[in-house]
UniProtKB/TrEMBL annotation:
Gene3D superfamilies listed in its UniProt record: 3.40.50.2300, Winged helix-like DNA-binding domain superfamily/Winged helix DNA-binding domain (1.10.10.10)
Originating species: Candidatus Blautia merdavium
Residues annotated as signal peptide: none
DNA-binding region(s) from the entry: 124-217
Protein name: Stage 0 sporulation protein A homolog
UniProt domain Response regulatory: residue ranges: 3-116
Keywords assigned by UniProt, alphabetized: DNA-binding, Phosphoprotein, Transcription, Transcription regulation, Two-component regulatory system
PANTHER family: REGULATOR OF RPOS, STAGE 0 SPORULATION PROTEIN A HOMOLOG
SMART domains in the cross-refs: REC (SM00448), Trans_reg_C (SM00862)
GO MF, one annotated term: phosphorelay response regulator activity
Domain of life according to the entry: Bacteria
Protein's job: May play the central regulatory role in sporulation. It may be an element of the effector pathway responsible for the activation of sporulation genes in response to nutritional stress. Spo0A may act in concert with spo0H (a sigma factor) to control the expression of some genes that are critical to the sporulation process.
Amino acid sequence: MDTILVIEDEKEIAELIGVFLEQAGYRVAQAYDGLEGIRLYEKEHPDLVVLDVLLPKLDGFSVCRALRQKSDVPVIMLTALSDEESQLKGYDLMIDEYVTKPFSIGVFLKKVEAVLRRHKNPRGNVLAYREVRLDQAAHTVMSGEREIYLTGKEFEILELFLSDPHRIMTKDYILEKLWKYEYNCEDGVIYTHIKNIRKKLGVDWIKTLRGVGYKLV
């Protein structure tokens, strides 16, 4: 049974999320401020963290930064901050998904399921392009002899590119394939993910086609 840590200071929301997660078959641990969240993470070692941004004692961005120093546990950021700048800041800290309040419980549970599935990734193919190899079963990426850590969404984007390396990847195509439950994803969010992938891999062969999309060259 997967354990999900919910770090949310609004107890009614935290308890509601907990009830639905438990009904869906997950074990739930709850914390109501950032410092408690970090302590509970170290105790529980959860499979996924649901993290609010506006937390007392230590905000969600700081909590995420601390978690990333410890592990690659998938993080879904739960927030009332829907502006693009806040989302980009979260993705820069390598969160896996954003859920904006108010939200649909059904969509939220689908995102939890999808993030956990991506993180475990039962598929078995190895995709390669130039010096990069992406192992779908192990959920690892190698650039030459270096192993590269990517967030869940970065991994998905690179996987999409490598699975069809001759295709021009338009924003609409990427949204259709990877943001099935997000209808307000901004151009800047996709760009930030791709910028992070380029930087982490140290490559220049993911080209931007201005006004069109992206292509491997």
